[in-house]
Write a structure and sequence with these properties.
Layout lengths: L2 H8 L4 H11 L9 H16 L3 E21 L2 E7 L11 E3 L1 E3 L5 H5 L7 E5 L4 H9 L4 E5 L29 E5 L1 H13 L5 E21 L10 E7 L7 H20 L7 E7 L8 H9 L1 H7 E6 L21 H12 L23 E2 L45 H20 L7 H19 L6 H22 L4 H23 L20 H7 L6 H37 L4
Parallel strand pairs: 4-5, 5-6, 6-7, 9-10, 9-11, 11-12
Antiparallel strand pairs: 1-2, 1-8, 2-7, 3-8, 8-10
Helix pairs in contact: 1-11, 2-7, 2-11, 7-11, 10-11, 12-13, 13-16, 14-16, 15-16
Length: 586
């Protein structure tokens, strides 16, 4: 399907249909593992069945944490608060202690203060990283002061997915509460007047194993083989409160994309699997992680790309420049945003968040949150979490992760635009003969990173072998792309796509994970190619020192991991190019 046909398909998005779905989602609170979530999924399933998809509702065990009531009491005054998913519950009568301010809760902030046995006061939204620092520093409680008028619900577990017997000890060790801005200012006033006044935290959190659902909708192209590749399109269904934007907007978009893609099924080149996850908001991506673990082989052999969706259709979310994508999918994402959003995608790397549970398997990903409020607008919400350069948006609206995420925040025109963007992405991946996965673009990003390390290290570490392999990757990716634009048979197209999938399996894990591809890294920030991070640590050491030697050991191991991945990727390109030159098919 060409660009003109894709644009015509996108023009068929129906705003009233989107609003009908949103009105339905506004009926239920959808906390993970609750009846409201199941009732809402029944509505989704009925729609997908009507569009011709084969649907399956999976119920699986997940470790879920549902926050309850919370408050902060100081000098006889009780302030309303919220607690966080995976906070510890306070003991009966509350948790009392001395409060120690720790600024934003950075490593330096904790290193500068003795917080053992204390309650820390943190300027900023609750996050897994700060929670982990507080627990390791010996704090017994945390009070977070929201920079927004509102207190935003958060999951503070640093464990990606349900914990194992080895990672359950990494769950938060303290009682954690958050105050909205005005209540935070009131607390600081009270503490300024009486610095030694004890503060009492009350928090009730229901944490434990429960059954949670995954709704899977599958559709193959006519005559497809049982093991044919597929596009993975996913978004979470569980919410905070009614969550009409987050994630009802995305679910409405998913249904409309599913409907229109099914209408042109005869033009598909591969299949489609759509996933509605639970355990995103209160389980740290437990459902997508469970599916990745349980269906590892299927995903490794058949998933060509992952399109993730979150929080579409909301008022004022006009900025599209900050949409995230893996480097190899940025050129395709840029084309999609230009086609329907008439904006220029900057090309931000996907952050370690959302249901991006498939990097270890080697599935390249694009998108998560789409539109944002303009940076000059009202108080940002989700932007508290990201410090990207050249960021033009300010999060997805002040109502994010609050009880105010309701139907009145939704906008039909924005919903149409957002759905057209996603339709272009999903339909484009389904219908294009050669997958739009650009490993020359990926190599360019990697080469820039290598050059940055080389500049800071000088002659202290030989990066020439790494650069040579990355240059080879770029040249071979460009050669295959040039070959793919010419005349080709169906078998040759399949061979090219199989090569791109093989390259993805080699490179995505080292670009987005730090270790075992069968496990999941913590839900904490990571740099690009995290195995190369030791090169930055090495550059910061004193030449000839013991720290330099320790860092050199780590750097060598990290570089070896990337060299191996590049060797595998280059070998896949070499084999494919040789086969095409000799006339061999798939």
């Amino acid at each position: 399907m060409n660009d003109i046909a894709l644009h015509a398909l996108a023009a068929r998005v129906e705003g009233p249909r989107l609003m009908k779905h949103l009105t339905a989602f506004a009926r239920w609170t959808k906390h993970a593992g609750t009846q409201g979530e199941l009732d809402s999924l029944a509505y989704v399933r009925a729609a997908l069945d009507g569009y011709g998809y084969a649907t399956e509702l999976i119920l699986h065990d997940a470790y879920i944490s549902l926050p309850g009531r919370a408050s902060v009491t100081v000098a006889g005054e009780t302030l309303p608060a919220i607690t966080q998913s995976f906070s510890r519950s306070s003991p009966e009568g509350g948790l009392s202690g001395e409060v120690v301010p720790v600024g934003s809760g950075s490593p330096a902030d904790f290193a500068a203060r003795d917080v053992r046995g204390k309650i820390v006061l943190v300027e900023g939204i609750a996050t897994p990283a700060v929670s982990q620092r507080a627990g390791r520093a010996g704090a017994i409680g945390q009070i977070h002061l929201s920079p927004s008028v509102h207190a935003h619900e958060m999951c503070i577990s640093p464990v990606w997915g349900s914990p194992t017997d080895e990672t359950v000890g990494d769950l938060p060790a303290t009682v954690v509460v958050t105050l909205a801005k005005a209540d935070g200012e009131r607390l600081k006033e009270k503490l300024a007047a009486a610095p030694d006044a004890p503060v009492t935290l009350n928090a009730a959190v229901d944490t434990g194993w429960r059954k949670t659902p995954i709704l899977v909708a599958s559709l193959d192209r006519p005559g497809a083989a049982a093991d044919e590749p597929f596009v993975l399109f996913s978004g979470h269904h569980d919410t905070w409160y009614y969550g009409v934007m987050d994630n009802g907007g995305a679910n409405a978009t998913m249904l409309e994309v599913a409907r229109l893609c099914a209408d042109v099924r005869n033009s598909w080149q591969r299949g489609l699997k759509i996933f509605f996850w639970s355990g995103h908001s209160q389980g740290r991506y437990s459902s997508s992680t469970w599916y990745a673990d349980t269906h590892w082989e299927e995903l490794a052999t058949r998933a060509v790309a992952h399109v993730n969706i979150d929080s579409t259709c909301a008022k004022g979310n006009t900025v599209l420049t900050d949409v995230q994508a893996a480097a190899e999918l940025v050129p395709f994402g840029r084309k999609v945003i230009r086609a329907e959003g008439d904006q220029e995608l900057f090309g931000h790397r996907i952050t370690r968040a959302g249901d991006q549970s498939f990097w270890g398997i080697g599935v390249p990903a694009m998108f998560s949150n789409l539109g944002e409020q303009p940076a000059s607008g009202a108080a940002p919400a989700a932007s508290f979490l990201f410090g990207w350069p050249n960021k033009q948006g300010a999060g997805t609206g002040w109502w994010w992760h609050t009880p105010e995420d309701t139907l009145d925040k939704m906008d039909e025109a924005i919903g149409i635009r957002d759905t057209r963007v996603y339709l272009n992405a999903v339909a484009g991946l389904l219908m294009v003969e050669i997958l739009p996965i650009d490993y020359a673009a990926h190599a360019a990003v990697l080469l820039a990173q290598i050059d940055g390390f080389a500049k800071s290290l000088g002659d202290r570490f030989d990066l020439a072998p790494l650069r040579t392999r990355a240059e080879g990757l770029k040249a071979k990716a460009e050669a295959l792309a040039a070959r793919a634009t010419g005349e080709r048979t169906v078998d040759e197209a399949r061979r090219i796509n199989a090569c791109l999938m093989a390259v993805s399996r080699a490179l995505v894990p080292v670009d987005y994970t730090s270790g075992d591809r069968f496990d999941h890294d913590p839900a904490l920030a990571q740099p690009a190619y995290p195995s190369l991070a030791a090169l930055g640590r090495l550059a910061a050491t004193e030449p000839g020192s013991d720290p330099e030697k320790f860092a050199t050991v780590a750097a060598r191991r990290g570089v070896n991991r990337v060299l191996f991945a590049l060797r595998e990727a280059n070998a896949a390109f070499d084999t494919c190019l040789a086969d095409l030159a000799s006339g061999k098919g798939a």
